[in-house]
Specification:
single chain, Arc Repressor Mutant, subunit A, Tetracycline Repressor, domain 2, 12 helices, 0% strand, disordered N terminus, DNA-binding
Length: 202
């Protein structure tokens, strides 16, 4: 096959750029406004395209959201990094991974959009439950030999979601003003406890 026919067989470059522009606009709006207040028409306006083009590429708002706000990391890659090191420092390694994600604008938009939408959109809630808790945090807790892996993962997940809510959605002044090192130092012991510490069974 010639290079010319290969180019014709694939997606035209302009089409790919348009699709990415729509996704970028969608990520921003879902993160800023949430799922319910974001419309395909609003995404189209922000991307500078006709709303019919948004429907052409993504079909529905649910499908657009699923792609725009997909978890920005692969749990299969994160879990080994969190587990690679001393057991007593796993809380620190986990919060560092979380802060790495939240420090990058595009991945932060995805996470914020997911957390903001999870309260009203079941698809978003399912991603948070399955991808973050079950596929990333439960394997970490299980690898540490815990018989309470689902509970430990749920408690750890609550801390992470709470950080995103407080700092990036509610804009609580103290958490917004806190630097990365301060946040890591404050949250690492809590994550460490939920992953490895004793849980009161009373």
């Amino acid at each position: 096959m010639t290079s010319v026919s290969r180019r014709r067989a694939g997606r035209p470059p302009g089409e790919s750029r348009t699709r990415e522009r729509i996704l970028g606009a969608a990520r921003s709006l879902f993160a800023e406004q949430g799922f319910d207040r974001t419309s395909l028409r609003g995404v189209a306006a922000a991307a500078g395209v006709d709303v019919a083009l948004v429907s052409h590429y993504f079909g529905s708002k649910q499908r657009l959201f699923a792609e725009a706000a997909a978890l920005p990391v692969d749990p299969a890659e994160v879990v080994p990094r969190v587990l690679a090191g001393p057991r007593e420092e796993i809380g620190r390694r986990l919060i560092e991974q979380v802060l790495d994600i939240l420090d990058a604008p595009e991945s932060r938009q995805r996470v914020v959009a997911l957390i903001r939408a999870a309260a009203s959109e079941e698809g978003a809630a399912q991603v948070v439950r399955e991808r973050l808790a079950r596929e990333m945090l439960e394997p970490v807790a299980a690898a540490l030999g815990s018989s309470d892996a689902p509970l430990r993962a749920a408690l750890t997940n609550a801390q992470i979601v709470g950080l995103v809510m407080s700092r990036h959605i509610l804009g609580v002044e103290a958490t917004v003003a806190a630097g990365r090192e301060q946040l890591a130092a404050a949250l690492a012991p809590a994550l460490q406890h939920f992953l490895t510490g004793p849980l009161d069974r009373r």
